[in-house]
Amino acid sequence: MEQLIGLRREDRPDAVVVHVTGAVDGLTATRLRTVIATALDRLDGRPLVLDLTEVGFFGSSGLRALAEGTEQAAARPGFEPLRIVVDHNRPVLRPIELTGYDAVLALYHDVDAAVAGTVAE
């Protein structure tokens, strides 16, 4: 079961990037929440970028993990929103759009744009 999700944190000078692969569901969302919380503690003024482009399934537990991470980020001094890379990955983008989270989450099409904070059309 442990292999349902892959999580890799990349500490860059300009950002902390968490690469997520596999499935984000009821079994794996707790691990994602833990990685988000840990990464938020290590930002040192850098943005946190979640790369979800290699996620094949994204359930309601994943949406809750993003919402909680966004709230945690907002509660920190020098608030910097989570930057979420979704590309055109329908398993991830579709639930975000259906719930209206696309209006409140900072979504990007690639990691470089997310690190820079520029929204691609």
UniProtKB/TrEMBL annotation:
Superkingdom assignment: Bacteria
Ranges for domain STAS: 5-118
SUPFAM superfamilies on file: SpoIIaa-like
Gene Ontology molecular function, alphabetical: anti-sigma factor antagonist activity
CDD domains: STAS_anti-anti-sigma_factors
Family stated for the protein in its record: Belongs to the anti-sigma-factor antagonist family.
Name the record gives this protein: Anti-sigma factor antagonist
Origin organism lineage: Bacteria, Bacillati, Actinomycetota, Actinomycetes, Pseudonocardiales
